[in-house]
Design goal:
It is globular, with a radius of gyration of 23 Å. A hairpin with a 2-residue loop joins β8 (381-387) and β9 (390-398). By secondary structure, it is of the alpha/beta class. Strands 2-3-4-1-5-6-7 form a 7-stranded mixed beta sheet. It has a 3-stranded antiparallel beta sheet with strand order 8-9-10, with no helix packed on it. It is built from 16 helices and 10 strands. The protein is 40% helix and 15% strand. It folds into 3 domains: 2-140 and 275-379 and 447-470, 3-Layer(aba) Sandwich (Rossmann fold), CATH 3.40.50; 149-267, no CATH class; 381-416, no CATH class. The two termini are 41 Å apart. The longest helix has 24 residues, at 2-25. It comes from Shimia litoralis. Pfam families: DUF463. This is YcjX family protein.
Length: 471
């Protein structure tokens, strides 16, 4: 294991040095990782970002676009031949078609290369022709990102933490009953392990639907071609002082270790360790709507998420010695179009407070971080309604479930985000002052003029933070 780790480290260092030399001499590459927890809108974000970089009429806050220095943008085959291509054309057709619909969610790693012809700035900029900058966008499920935190845990630690966290959740009751009967079994059969694993997976799925975010192991929800394999057939068990050598505990422990070695580690090595810019999308409004416990769970997930990153600067020497680092991280609350613009500062402040610990840790390591609220594709319009003599700042859109038009006043978010975070940390079951409402809106029908991508909220500012300095 030690020799393997050393070999992996050496290989990464050689690859990193080679990439850096190639980029310096020829065409620079920005490798942007896009992830987010359940229902955060990763696919929509990538689709709208690419569409708005191809047609830049709605990107005034991206300085290279505003200054006219992006001469051309075009899609190319991605450099990784074994990674599926992000199906940009189909997803864009879903959002902008005559009967628009949201595209299917991320279920595995995919990649897309967008190449930009950019006119350099500075004294020599006018003497040089445009240079090519490649933007490699890597899309991967947030559930897999949370799995990287398992690398530092033993089966005993993971089991104890998981069982303590789900003890009061009704979604977990069926699994908690079964795990009691499986305690200290020295004679077990494969059907038992399979039943425990499947029951635990059903809990994860139910908890995700109800707004929880601690969905590890993430591959249980998105197994792909690993479904049914021993590496995905384990579950947390009640602690045993001296587990039997051939008992259930030892077998589950072995499979947990195999999951880390055969599933989690290759994902880190092949994909995650090569990223140098990262955006983490968060459905913060969905968590607030689900209540204080969901907000607390989201807060824990965000801290866990950053522990998986390798933040820092990407100088030539540091990349050669330590491997590539994530030098910019953007935390973005999505679905800002579900709120009137007067509420956007409160949503951004909540996002900043939610990610404070994660951001401080990244900045200490040398990375730059930022928090904001955005809507990748705007699905609503704003209006003010009079209700009982009071003016309410609302948004109007087409309801996803019924196809009917409806106006929504979700409630006013507090100016002080601690009014949301403190009850969450204290274990409150519900908000004391009001309930925050959420509706699921379908994408609006669009009529795009030549040179314009889909309408959005602050997507151009997100692009400026993530890649503007490299253009």
């Amino acid at each position: 294991m030690v020799i393997s780790s050393i070999a992996d480290s050496v290989t990464r260092s050689v690859e990193t040095a080679s990439d850096r030399l190639s980029q310096s001499l020829f065409e620079p590459v920005i490798r942007l990782g896009v992830t987010g927890l359940a229902r955060s809108g990763k696919t929509v974000f990538i689709t709208s970002l690419v569409a708005n970089l191809l047609d830049r009429g709605r990107m005034p806050q991206l300085s290279a676009a505003a200054e006219g220095r992006i001469v051309a943008a075009y899609l190319q085959p991605q450099p990784d031949d074994t990674v599926p291509r992000f199906d940009f054309e189909t997803h864009l057709s879903d959002v902008t078609g005559r009967a628009p619909q949201w595209p299917n969610s991320t279920r595995s790693v995919s990649e897309l290369r967008l190449s930009l012809k950019v006119q350099p700035t500075g004294i020599l900029g006018g003497m040089q022709g445009p240079r090519t900058v490649h933007l490699d966008i890597v899309d991967y499920p947030g559930e897999w990102l949370l799995d990287l935190g398992l690398m530092e845990q033993t089966f005993r630690q993971w089991s104890g933490d998981t069982l303590a966290r789900i003890a009061d959740r009704p979604q977990a009751q069926a699994y908690l009953d079964k795990v009691q009967h499986a305690h200290a079994l020295s004679d077990w059969q494969e059907p038992l392990a399979k039943d425990l694993s499947e029951t635990f997976t059903r809990y994860l799925d139910a908890a995700r639907r109800d707004g929880y975010y601690d969905m590890t192991p993430g591959r249980f929800l998105l197994p792909g071609d690993l479904e049914g394999s021993p590496a995905l057939t384990f579950a947390p068990l009640i602690d045993e002082d001296r587990p039997d050598r051939k008992g259930l505990w030892r077998e589950m422990e072995r499979r947990f270790d195999a999951y880390k070695a055969k599933v989690v580690k290759p994902f880190f090595r092949d994909h995650f360790s090569r990223i140098d810019r990262q955006i983490v999308l968060v459905d913060a409004l969905g968590a607030i709507h689900s209540g204080p416990q969901a907000v607390h769970d989201l807060n824990r997930a965000m801290v866990s998420t950053l522990q998986a990153f390798r933040p820092g600067t990407n100088s030539f020497l540091s990349r050669l010695l330590r491997g590539k680092r994530v030098d910019k991280i953007l935390f973005a609350a999505t679905k800002a179009d579900h709120l009137h613009h007067t509420q956007h500062p409160q949503l951004t402040a909540f996002m900043q407070a939610l990610t404070r610990e994660a951001a401080d840790r990244a900045q200490f390591a040398g990375a730059k971080t930022h928090a904001m609220s955005l809507a990748s594709v705007r699905a609503t319009v704003e209006e003010t309604l009079n209700h009982d003599g009071q003016e309410l700042a609302c948004v109007r859109g087409t309801l996803l479930e019924t196809g009917k038009q409806a106006a929504l006043f979700p409630g006013n978010l507090p100016d002080d985000p601690s009014h949301l975070l403190q009850p969450a940390r204290n274990g409150a079951k519900k908000w004391l002052d009001q309930d925050y409402q959420v509706m699921n809106f379908a994408p609006a029908q669009l009529t795009l003029r030549p040179g314009e991508g889909p309408p959005h909220i602050r997507l151009d500012r997100a692009a400026e933070f993530l890649i503007g300095d490299r253009l």
